[in-house]
Amino acid sequence: MPRARLRRRSRISEEVKPHPMVVNMLTKVEEIIPKWKIVPTKNVIDTAFKDPIKRETVTLPFFVLHGEADIVTDPEVSKAFNEKSSSSDKTIKLYPGMWHGLTSGEPDESIEIVFTDITAWLDKQLL
User: Fold this and answer.
1) Closest among 18, 39, 17 to 28, alpha carbons compared
2) Staple 64 to which of 86, 92, 93, 124, CB 3.0 to 4.6 Å?
3) What sign for the dihedral angle of Cα 111, 113, 119, 124?
4) Residue 18: what pLDDT?
5) Are the C-beta atoms of residues 92 and 68 closer than 8 Å to each other?
6) Which pLDDT value is given to residue 10?
């Protein structure tokens, strides 16, 4: 796949990507030393699932939680996974203003909200 198309499909948050000049330099280094995977432009979903069919054939119940202000991983990745999976029992919860560390890096009252949501989802699964 051409690099330009790969960059457009990227789901790594734009806020944590290095300057384009740095990406260009890293791309050239990666061409010389291909085992160094140092260019941060790949689609996170593509790298999380070796078999692309499997991301669409997830049929188990799942609960996706994501901070809307997360700059480590783009919330759009979670939304895309939720939309593409074929599970009939899927839930996505986006937390406005929260970052990446939903269960440890947020203020205590926010962490409590997240754990309350997790517990409620698990309770629902047991019914």
Assistant:
1) 39
2) 92
3) negative
4) 66
5) no
6) 43
Cα 102 from chain centroid (whole Å): 13
Rounded mean pLDDT for each run of 10 residues along the chain, 127 residues in total: 41 64 73 62 60 74 93 85 88 96 95 96 91
Q: What is the pLDDT of residue 91?
A: 96
Is residue 13 within 8 A of residue 74, CB to CB? The reply is: yes
Phi, psi dihedral angles at 31 (to 5 degrees):
-70, -35
Both tokens of 8, joined, read: 């457009």
Whether 111 contacts 93, CB under 8 Å:
no
pLDDT at site 3: 41
* Pick from 76, 63, 79: nearest CA to 125: 63
Q: DSSP readout, 10-28?
A: --S-GGGSPPHHHHHHHHH
Residue of 116, 90, 112, 114 whose CA lies nearest to 100: 114
The pLDDT value recorded for residue 122 is 94
